[in-house]
Amino acid sequence: MRSYESEATIDASPDAIWAILTDAPAYAAWDSGVDRVEGTIAPGETIKVHFQASPGRAFPVKVTDYEPARSMTWAGGMPLGLFRGVRTFTLEPRDGGPTRFRMREEYTGPLLPLIWRSMPDLGPSFEQFARGLKARAEERR
Which of 49, 96, 109, 140 is 20 to 30 A from 117, comparing alpha carbons? Predict the structure, then answer.
């Protein structure tokens, strides 16, 4: 298994952050690593994410877990589990204070060693996502 993760302390409520995380058409406005997200971010739905790092290519992911204002999981990959990516978003409220946001993506499957070598370093884009989400949520307060 390989993974990337990022986190941020955001001065906004989990509900406010959740509204941003589930607004697919608005992703490009605050996540500079995304060209667009197609579909509806809701339980059991499949969305298509278009990343700037892979122009012209869409990555379909299914929303497999959905607990409003708490956590959400997107999963995608190749048939037969040859390569799989599972991204989890978690919101942890602090008593009367900011919310801790965490995003982690884990990669598994027999083709992982081969694919991992050809993947760009996603660490900076994960950090960029957390910063963009924080800025968007805090500007809306």
Answer: 49
Supply angle C-alpha 7, 8, 14, rounded to 5.
105
Q: What is the pLDDT of residues 107-132, one digit of tens each?
A: 999 999 999 999 888 999 999 999 99
> Would you list the DSSP string of the chain?
-EEEEEEEEESS-HHHHHHHHT-GGGHHHH-TTEEEEES--STT-EEEEEETTSTT-EEEEEEEEEETTTEEEEEEE-GGGSSEEEEEEEEEE-TTS-EEEEEEEEEESTTHHHHHHHS---HHHHHHHHHHHHHHHHHT-
Give 52-72 pLDDT, tens digit per residue: 878 888 999 999 999 999 999
Distances (CA, A) of 31 to 20, 36, 94, 99: 11, 9, 25, 19
